[in-house]
Design goal:
By secondary structure, this protein is α/β, with parallel strands linked by helices. It contains 13 helices and 13 strands. The protein folds into 2 domains: 8-42 and 284-386, Aspartate Aminotransferase, domain 1, CATH 3.90.1150; 44-281, Type I PLP-dependent aspartate aminotransferase-like (Major domain) (Aspartate Aminotransferase, domain 2, 3-Layer(aba) Sandwich), CATH 3.40.640.
Length: 387
């Protein structure tokens, strides 16, 4: 058999941490607070629209850019919530989830040797797709517990070779929502270095305590250098449907489409119609999901603190980051691998999202998009571990 299987750029990455931890959850029958998927379904109107689409025979290849109804719904959503005007035919592209949108965008815009600025901790696919494109990752660290942007560090991450900024807000895994001042700094540096900004906004509707999500594309001078990525999975609690999209200047969207067509071609046909329905639902539906998750956030934060952990209270997303040092953690990676067997709970070590591992040596990410009884039992088990 020929040797050297696998893409050399992916050699450092191995199996994604989410697959590893979910496998450990299954092996030990543990409560899985590691992977960010809800254990309840989303709005009934969205689910019924999928059933209707399937029964109506909308089960073959959808158009390459996406079904017209969804392209129009994404454009209408951006206008309704953010005042952004998009041409659905040329400035929106439907993808197989946000993960494909990120990969296709990075592969479309980054050439070997180009530098990509991102914040760490970062969602693990960012590093892998930058590597696949032959890009060079340059990072600025967000530090526990407030995860504020360090201006000096961020400025140092930019150089004449900066091609792209990859920004996630609301931010996974920290739950941080970037402030307007922080976004202005990112935009200033992007303009100064003539760089694209690619924003991962999949948690755009999941912010808490009245904190506002500000899309970069709405900021002065950024509409023509920003590609915005989002998806239905988090907004409508349908992570398995894998319906995402990217929007922005027509020329850039066309470049992403040229890559996407040779990756998945198309996908999620009937679900695209259902998501189009979802994006047109009343504001109360979007607000209700965020309100429900805020209560779950408070529940998990309280339980983790009662178990002895130091907690950073997130402003958005599905996730809480906690310091497990009070529970005896010296290294979060080892701690999380042992936790399913020791306590029957799964979390994810934040260090796997870092280049600077020491910045997150004992930090663990827990997901709170679970039923209340599940969260309560997980906290009880963690408290017993500490006791």
């Amino acid at each position: 058999m020929p040797s050297s299987l696998g893409h050399p750029a992916l050699a450092p990455f191995g199996t994604t941490i989410f697959a590893t931890m979910s496998a450990l959850a299954a092996e030990h029958g543990a409560i899985n607070l590691g992977q960010g998927f809800p254990d309840t379904d989303g709005p009934a109107e969205v689910l019924e629209a999928a059933v209707t689409a399937i029964r109506s025979g909308l089960n073959q290849y959808p158009p390459g850019p996406g079904v017209p109804a969804l392209l129009e719904a994404v454009a209408a959503h951006q206008s309704r919530f953010y005042g952004l005007s998009l041409d659905p035919r040329s400035e929106v592209l439907v993808t197989v989830g946000a993960t494909e949108a990120i990969a296709a965008t990075v592969l479309a815009l980054v050439r070997p040797g180009d530098e990509v600025v991102t914040f760490e901790p970062y969602y693990d696919s960012y590093a892998a797709t930058i590597a696949l494109a032959g890009g060079v990752r340059r990072t600025s660290v967000l530090r526990f517990p407030d995860f504020a942007v360090d201006e000096e560090s961020l400025r140092a991450a930019f150089s004449p070779r900066t091609r792209l900024v990859l920004l996630n807000t609301p931010h996974n895994p920290t739950g941080k929502v970037f402030t307007r001042a922080e976004l202005d700094l990112v935009c200033e540096l992007a303009r100064e270095h003539d760089a694209w900004v690619v924003t991962d906004e999949v948690y755009e509707h999941l912010t808490f305590d009245g904190v506002e999500h500000v899309p970069v594309a709405t900021l002065p001078g950024m509409r023509e250098r920003t590609l915005t990525i989002s998806s239905a999975g988090k907004t409508f609690s349908t992570t398995g449907w894998k319906v995402g999209w990217v929007s922005g200047p027509a020329e850039a969207v066309a470049a992403v489409r040229a890559v996407k067509q040779f990756v998945t071609y198309v996908g999620s046909g009937p679900f695209q119609h259902a998501v189009a329905t979802g994006l047109g639902l009343d504001d109360a539906v979007f607000a209700g999901l965020a309100r429900s998750l805020q209560a779950k956030r408070d529940r998990l934060v309280s339980g983790l603190r009662a178990a002895g952990m130091t907690v950073s209270v997130p402003q958005g997303t599905y996730f809480v980051v906690a310091d497990a040092a009070p529970l005896g953690a010296v290294d979060a990676l080892s701690f999380c691998h042992e936790l399913p067997e020791r306590a029957g709970v799964v979390g994810v070590p934040v260090s796997v999202f870092h280049d600077d591992v020491d910045a997150a040596r004992t930090l663990v990410r827990f997901a709170f998009c679970k039923e209340d009884a599940v969260l309560d039992e997980a906290c009880r088990r963690l408290a017993a571990l500490g006791g």
